[in-house]
Each structure stands twice: as C-alpha cells, then as structure tokens.
Write a structure and sequence with these properties.
The complex is a heterodimer. By secondary structure, chain A is mainly α. Chain A has helices spanning 9-20, 25-48, 53-64, 67-104, 109-136, 149-177, 181-212. Chain A has 2 domains: 9-65, no CATH class; 80-212, Four Helix Bundle (Hemerythrin (Met), subunit A) (Up-down Bundle), CATH 1.20.120. Chain A contains 7 helices and no strands. In chain A, α6 packs antiparallel against α7 (181-212). The longest helix of chain A has 38 residues, at 67-104. Chain B has one domain (3-89): Orthogonal Bundle (Arc Repressor Mutant, subunit A). Chain B has helices at 3-7, 10-17, 25-36, 47-56, 79-103; strands at 23-24, 60-67, 70-77. The chains are: A mainly alpha, B alpha+beta.
Chain lengths: 214, 111
C-alpha cells in the first residue's frame, strides 16, 4: 500500500515556483529551498502564537507574495546565473579546443586552414564570454546589466557549440588520416564532450533569456 | 510605505540589517520588520532574489550553516558591502536634507 503524502500548502508553493522557474539546476534548487524554508519559518512563527495551521499558511503566503508575484524577480536572477554559467563554460571550453588543435599538431593543408578559422572564431567567443562575467558581477553594482546580454551570451554560446561540433568533425577526419591517431582521437572526444556541455548550457540560456525579456 | 518606494531602497535596507552579523533569510525578514515597526509594505519573498543579486555582485557572501536538523544559508557583508552601505547612508542623508529643506524651509530672517 502506498502512503499518500498529506496536502501541504508550503510544499505546493515550492512546487509552483519549481515548475515556473528555469535556470541552472543547483541555483534554482537552492533559491526555491530558501524560499520554502523561509515560508515554513513564517508559518511556524504564527502557529507558535496560537494561529491554526491553515490561516497561518494563508497569512504567510500573503506576506511572502504568491508564486506568480515572486517569479519575475527570481527568474531574472536565474537568467543571469544561467548567463554566467554559459559564459564561464564558453570561456573554459573554447581554449580547450585550441589546446586540442595544438596537441594534434594539425599543421598541414585543410586541417591548418580549419584551425586558423576556428582560432579566430574561438578567440572572439572566449573574449565576449569572459567580458560577460564582470558585467553581470562586480560591475553590476554601479552599471545596469544590458537587457539583451543574456540573449547575446546564449547565441554566442550556441555559435561556439557549433564551432566545437565542426572542430569535432575536422578532428575525426584528421584522426583517420594521422599517424598519431590516438592523441587526435582523444582530442576529438574532449571536443565532442565540450560541444555537448556548451550546447546544453546555451540552449537553457536561450530559454531563460526569452523568459526574462518583457 | 508603499512597495515601489521600498524597492528603491531595498539594497540599503538589507545591507543595514546585516551590518551587525550574519543572518539567514527569514531572520533578515524579521529584522527588517522589527526595525521598521511593520510599516514597510513589501512582499517579503522578494528578499530572496535580492539577496542572490547582492551575492552575485559581491556585496554579500553566502554560506550554508547547520541549524538543528536543517541547513540554512546565511549571508554576511563583504568589504565591498560595507563600503556600499556607507555610500547608501551618505546618499540617503543628503537626499533627506535637500528634500527636507524644500518641504520645511527655515523661516527667513526679518529685514
């Protein structure tokens, strides 16, 4: 027999926030848990004063604001957290791509041409991604974060993910032809993994950016 | 005080209640209510994303603390947060002095 969980307005409140918000899983879970605990504290403070649980919950929710009232502020923070996550991922994975090309010593013909273009594209992506971190961090104390920055970082991350995908294909081709194919194959595997991580982060960032725009 | 009026000063309010030492989210809410005598009309749940914003910009530092069976996230001021609080106080005093002078002008000396 399965035990049914009793209906709890505080848990319902947390569930409503969880389903409405999008962003980095850990940050979102932390934010919802903090709000749920705070709401539980507010209910407990009222029940200690002798108020029945139901009215105490209603009063605490009125004080906290409904989930719909909290979602815009929470989503804005989660969107910026996702923007920073995507920027950080791009800034770390793109130099990794360059390292892969160095390891494979792709220094001839088509491979070299592809590498030159990837280096130029990657450097631009890494610079933009790195710039987004202070803009959404310490600089945001005095300067407003540009409204379109999350979308710009999302599409930059997407472009970098496509670049990594192209690099994976090029590395696979080089690997097939190279004499030191184990190193090239390893570089290809690292690049594929980086592509998957960055593409996932950029996709979530695009979704968050759309939600945060008015 | 209406919600919109409070929101413009929320950063200063949160930094001020954390000046004495670290507090977790609901303790910050009760400290704000106690200091204001309950006069601030604020959806207190919006304090949590505001704390997240202040932490992101380096004005607060958050850490998990054990409290009985529960873990709570406590916040404390960073050095940048203390400097910002001092700036907020100065700006507020200048603002109230200027508006006060306009609303309650000193009587002009009789000529």
């Amino acid at each position: 027999m399965t035990a049914t969980r009793p209906h709890d307005p505080v848990e319902d409140y947390a569930a409503a926030l969880t389903s409405a918000l999008h962003g980095p899983a850990r940050t979102k879970a932390r934010m919802v848990a903090e709000i749920r605990d705070g709401l539980a504290d507010a209910v407990a403070a009222r029940t200690r004063d002798g108020m029945p649980y139901g009215p105490a919950t209603d009063a605490a929710v009125r004080e906290f604001g409904t989930p719909d009232e909290l979602v815009p502020d929470c989503q804005r923070e989660l969107t910026l957290a996702q923007t920073r996550h995507t920027a950080r991922t791009a800034a770390l994975t793109v130099p990794l791509l360059l390292l892969c090309w160095l390891l494979t010593r792709a220094d001839a013909g088509l491979a070299r041409d592809v590498a030159v273009h990837l280096v130029a594209a990657s450097a631009s992506v890494a610079l933009l991604a790195a710039a987004a971190l202070p803009v959404t961090g310490p600089l945001a104390r005095t300067l407003p974060v540009p409204r379109r920055l999350p979308l710009a970082v999302a599409w930059t991350g997407s472009a970098a993910a496509v670049t990594l995908g192209a690099a994976s294909l090029a590395l696979a081709l080089v690997s097939a032809l190279a004499t030191d194919w184990p190193v090239t194959a390893l570089a290809c595997a690292v690049t594929v993994t980086s592509h998957a991580v960055l593409a996932t982060s950029a996709r979530t960032c695009r979704r968050c950016a759309r939600l945060a725009l008015p | 005080m209406k919600t919109d009026a409070v929101r413009g000063h929320l950063d200063g309010v949160l930094l001020a209640v954390l000046e004495a030492g670290p507090l977790h989210g609901y303790a910050i809410i009760t400290a704000v209510q106690r200091r204001s005598g309950g006069a601030l009309e604020l959806r207190t749940g919006t304090i949590y994303p505001a704390l997240s914003r202040l932490e992101r910009t380096g004005l607060l530092r958050g850490s998990w603390q054990s409290s009985g069976e529960r873990r709570r996230r406590s916040y404390e001021l960073t050095d940048a947060g203390r400097r910002r609080l001092a700036e907020e106080r100065t700006a507020w005093q200048e603002f109230t002095a200027v508006i006060g002078a306009v609303l309650n002008p000193a009587p002009e000396p009789a000529s």
